[in-house]
Amino acid sequence: MISVLGAMVCYAPLRALASQGASGGLADLWPLLIYGPWMVASLAILRASANGRRVAHSWCVVILFSALAVVLCVAHAPLTLSAISVAGLPPITALLSFHQLVRQIEPPAPPLPAPAEEPGNGHHRKPPSSRP
């Protein structure tokens, strides 16, 4: 839900940036170029996590497009600390919330095997020397 909210908040600034170089209809769809790959990679991560597999490539896509969303939203914001914070926070929040969701879904790591005992239970050792 947080990810969807982040995308909704970022839609207007991304659309405004796109409208500077694209027609109205294309500018309306342009934010999907950011959040489309993000969503597809997120679904791949969720599926792999449920099956106990790793997907480094999909995480790279999610992180890359989250960073791109931050940069583009901040580029559209007025140059004040509060405006930059408000513009950059939704993609970061979406990424961090998604990461925490995946951590909840991932199966726990298998326990490490116990160290093997030495053969002979220590009887093969030399007795300590009795020299003074």
Helices and strands, with pairings:
Blueprint: H1 2-19, H2 24-29, H3 32-50, H4 56-76, H5 81-105
Helix pairs in contact: 1-4, 1-5, 3-4, 3-5, 4-5
Pfam families: DUF2637 (PF10935)
Organism: Streptomyces benahoarensis
Region (Disordered): 107-132
**How many domain units?**
1
Provide the residue-averaged pLDDT: 82
Helix percent reads 55-70%
Strand count, sense and barrel status of the largest sheet are: none
Q: Which secondary-structure class do the elements indicate?
A: mainly alpha
Q: Which overall shape is indicated by the principal axes computed on the Cα atoms?
A: elongated
Query: Would you identify the regions where 5 or more consecutive residues have pLDDT less than 50?
Result: none
Alpha plus pi helix count? 5
Distance between the termini: 76 Å
Query: Could you tell me the number of beta strands?
Result: 0
* Order of helical and strand elements: HHHHH
Percent strand equals under 5%
CA radius of gyration is: 26 Å
Give your account of this protein's structure.
The protein is mainly alpha-helical. The chain has one domain. Helices cover 67% and strands 0% of the residues. The protein has five helices and no strands. It has helices at residues 2-19, 24-29, 32-50, 56-76, 81-105. Helix 1 (2-19) crosses helix 4 (56-76) and helix 1 crosses helix 5. It is elongated, with a radius of gyration of 26 Å. The mean pLDDT is 82. Keywords: Membrane, Transmembrane, Transmembrane helix. The chain crosses the membrane at residues 28-46, 58-77. Residues 107-132 are annotated as: Disordered. Residues 107-116 have a biased composition (Pro residues). It comes from Streptomyces benahoarensis.
